[in-house]
Amino acid sequence: MTAAIDSGRRRFLGLTAALGAVAAGGLFAGWARPALAVPARMVTIGAAVTETVWALGAGDRIVAVDTTSMSPAAVQRLPKVGYMRTLAAEGVIATGAIRVIADDGAGPASTLDQIRAAGIDLRMVTSATRIDQVEAAIVAVGDAIDLHDPAVALGLQVTAALTEVAEAASARPVHPSVMCLIGVGNSGLMAAGRDTAAAAVIRLAGGRNAFELSADYAPISAEAAAAMAPEVLAMPTHAIARLGGREAVLALPQLRLTPAAMAGRLIAIDSRALSGLGPSTADVATAFAADLAQVMG
């Protein structure tokens, strides 16, 4: 594995030296200013898509984003065109964008057809649901905005970071089972299934996803949660607050009989862990791994 990391780093350094494109200060400091071929007005749909476009230095070309796009912080000041799975064409068209870069989970299909019919260049990109797909997803976004070479270099950089996190996780003596939850409505809960970004982050952080029966998010009952016996619960900070706080979540009928709730093990997970895998995933997983180690003592 170390040899693979070294190889990845050498490839990355070679590419960036050739491009002369690396800027100091981390991924979101951006690359060299994008070539003029990059569209001047873009809408990005999907958290990882937006994060990648920004990391490639084209953030100043984004005029609006969807509501899952929260990173980097500057994105939160941009106009919103709605939730990625329930977009309305009118809102997107009104931005004056000439190109839309969208996660393949965006929709509905009728809205995407209307966007195309309005003459907007719509580019769909396949999102990553596994760590080994992140590099390809970054390159796909780079291709969609005509920044292929910088995207290849960024993808190698991110892969090297993810590999280091995975190696650290595999060396840990304890790999607790984790159930990642989101709240729906007043009392409903949905758990992250095996093919979700949250499950990938749990595994990358050294945990085991407790809810592998479903591929996607699915409702969770008290009986199912107790049977899966998660040792740790994870939920985004805003969801914990919406449900009344930490103690209220641990006392929910669906969760209170789980080992995690009885031991008070609830982690407020970075919402980026649920919204897609991209340039920030290594940092998100590293922070979650530290929280896991803390709650497991």
Task: Explain how this protein is built.
It is globular and about 55 Å long. The chain is of the alpha/beta class and 297 residues long. The strands form 2 sheets. Strands 5, 6, 7, 8, 9 and 10 form a 6-stranded mixed beta sheet that branches. It starts with a helix and ends with a helix. Helix content is 42%, strand content 14%.
Compact overview of the structure:
This protein has 297 residues and is an alpha/beta fold. Helices cover 42% and strands 14% of the residues.
Q: Which structural class fits the helix and strand makeup?
A: alpha/beta
Our measurement of the CA-to-CA distance between the termini, rounded to an integer number of angstroms, reads: 28 Å
- What is the overall number of helices? 13
**Proportion of residues in helical segments:** 40-55%
Proportion in β-strands = 5-15%
Q: Rounded to an integer, what's the Rg over CA atoms?
A: 20 Å
Largest sheet: 6 strands, mixed
Shape designation: globular
- How many individual β-strands? 10
For the residues shown, what is the average pLDDT? 88
Low-confidence stretches: 1-26
What is the string of SSEs from the N terminus onward?
A: HEHEHEHEHHEEHEEHEHHHEHH
